[in-house]
Design goal:
By secondary structure, the protein is of the alpha/beta class. It is built from 14 helices and eleven strands. The protein folds into two domains: 193 residues, Rossmann fold, CATH 3.40.50.300; 96 residues, Magnesium chelatase subunit I, C-Terminal domain (Helicase, Ruva Protein, domain 3, Orthogonal Bundle), CATH 1.10.8.
Length: 302
């Protein structure tokens, strides 16, 4: 799987840490929320990651008039056969790019909830499984931009990681300007397969977590629920996602068990977007600082 990181880094240059986090989410079987200004390479990163593992990227452009059926699909009447035929929507893909997800109203955003939580969608009461592996990479513009809707708490809770891309460094941006490199370029050839990705996910999920570390993780999560400045702490789903990403990080580094460093390194990317400030504001920097403070004061097992 390290070859995937190398291949994507040829497209998204100078963002090794961000690529590493997305790769961790993939190995953990989770979804990623890429949050940043337009035009910094969020969609390009998603396309590059899909191409590197040999998957076609199914892209959904979220807009104010997008309907749930545009995502899930619809049943169409076939007169000759005299029955309805289901035509799957773009959510039926291994990699789904939900571009500018917060430009659609909550009703449309909710069409992804079952898909992200249960790897299936229900159409007319019938559950339809999604292909495996299945990963949603959603991009989100800053909430202060015009025409955006805040993501519901239940939607944010289904993202294993929230990642900020940021601008390219001055040197890399100057090189891009000089070469006139076209945006949207992805890796030309896959470096692994979807079957290998599934094996990596299974291997990462089986990594050993010491009971003391499990108890430590639970104390951190419990502290978010009891924090005076937080109205909503981390859910059990969020705690499971945190541990899953820690396992994936340890596996990618060739270790056989999770370390406290894995948990602490991934605490902010996996937990901060799940908490809600008591003021009701979605101040990402403040939420991240609260999570850092909690991690810093909870005693580490010896």
């Amino acid at each position: 799987m390290r070859a995937v990181k190398t291949a994507v880094a040829e497209v998204i240059r100078g963002k090794d840490e961000v690529i590493e986090l997305v790769l961790i989410a993939l190995c953990a079987g989770g979804h990623v929320l890429l949050e940043d200004l337009p035009g910094v390479g969020k969609s390009t990163l998603a396309r590059a990651m899909a191409a590197a593992v040999g998957a076609e990227l199914s892209r959904i452009q979220f807009t104010a008039d997008l309907l749930p059926a545009d995502i899930i699909g619809v049943s169409v009447w076939r007169p000759q056969a005299e029955h309805f035929e289901f035509r799957p929507g773009p959510v039926f893909g291994h990699f789904v790019l939900a571009d500018e997800v917060n430009r659609a109203p909550p009703r449309t955003q909710s069409a992804l909830l079952e898909a992200m939580g249960e790897a299936q969608v229900s159409v007319e009461g019938q559950p339809r499984p999604l292909p495996q592996p299945f990963m949603v990479i959603a991009t989100q513009n800053p909430s202060e931009h015009h025409g955006t809707y805040p993501l519901p708490e239940s939607q944010r809770d289904r993202f294993a990681l929230r990642v900020t891309l940021g601008y390219a460094s001055a040197a890399i941006e100057a090189e891009l300007l000089q070469s006139g490199a076209a945006t949207g370029r992805t890796t030309s050839e896959p470096v692994t397969t979807l079957a290998h990705v599934q094996r990596a996910q299974a291997a990462a999920a089986g990594l050993y977590l010491h009971p003391d570390l499990a108890a430590y993780a639970q104390r951190v999560v419990q502290a978010t629920r009891e924090h005076a400045e937080l109205d909503q702490g981390v859910s059990t789903r969020g705690a499971l996602a945190w541990v899953a990403t820690a396992r994936a990080r340890a596996w990618l580094e060739g270790r056989e068990q999770v370390s406290v460093d894995d948990l602490q390194t991934l605490a902010v990317p996996t937990l901060a977007h799940r908490v809600v400030l008591r003021s009701g504001e979605l101040a990402d920097a403040v939420a991240a600082e609260h999570v850092r403070d909690i991690v810093a004061r909870i005693p580490v097992p010896r």
